[in-house]
Amino acid sequence: MDTPSARLIAAAQAADEVTDARGRRLSLRRLTALDKLRLFEAAGPALAANDRWLGMAVLACSVTAIDDIPVPAPASKAMIEAMVQRLGDDGIAAVSAHLAPDRPAEADAAGN
Questions:
Q1: Spatial distance between the Cα atoms of 10 and 104, rounded to a whole number of angstroms
Q2: Residue 10, domain member (yes or no)
Q3: Which one of 6, 55, 78, 102 is least enclosed by Cβ atoms within 10 Å?
Q4: Considering the domain boundaries, does residue 107 fall inside one?
Q5: Is the pLDDT of residue 32 over 80?
Q6: For the chain, how many structural domains are there in total?
Q7: pLDDT exceeding 70 applies to what percent of the chain?
Q8: Would 69 be classed as within a structural domain?
Q9: DSSP the chain
Q10: Is 42:79 a contact under the CB 8 Å cutoff?
Q11: How far is the CA of 64 from the CAs of 27, 34, 50, 72, in angstroms?
Q12: pLDDT category of residue 4 using cuts at 50, 70 and 90
């Protein structure tokens, strides 16, 4: 049975952890399709179409805890911006490096 408790336990077990340059432990997970849909709604139509803004928002919304203190999933533009500000460049960079897909070796060799 898929209860709220079971979903929380599964999410906690699936969380990754990364340490940023400031020494903060960031727990994170990849957003699900439903998470992304909710992010689009929170961002609004103009920002949901802005790939750069949305990319940073996805990184910020992937953080579930900072130093083992849970953070709520941002549900509005203001909450997303507050999370980006809280993470800062160091936090965003650490999340990005951890969640970025590995580049194929051929692309590195080609200088791409």
A1: 30
A2: no
A3: 102
A4: no
A5: yes
A6: 1
A7: 79
A8: yes
A9: ---HHHHHHHHHHH-EEEE-TT--EEEE-PPPHHHHHHHHHHHHHHHHT-HHHHHHHHHHHTEEEETTEE-PPP-SHHHHHHHHHHHHHHHHHHHHHHHSPPPPHHHHHTT-
A10: yes
A11: 5, 16, 24, 7
A12: confident
Helix 33-48 crosses helix 51-61 at what angle (to 10 degrees)?
A: 140
Inside any domain, residue 112: no
- Rounded to whole angstroms, the maximal C-alpha distance in the chain is 49
Residue 70 belongs to domain spanning = 23-100
pLDDT tens-place string over residues 80-105: 999 999 999 999 999 999 988 654 44
Which sign, positive or negative, has the C-alpha torsion 35, 37, 38, 40? positive
Q: Which residue has the tokens 């160091």?
A: 90
Length of the chain: 112
For residue 2, give both structure tokens.
Answer: 């898929």
Tokens at 35, concatenated: 């998470």
Q: Which residue has the tokens 């999410």?
A: 11
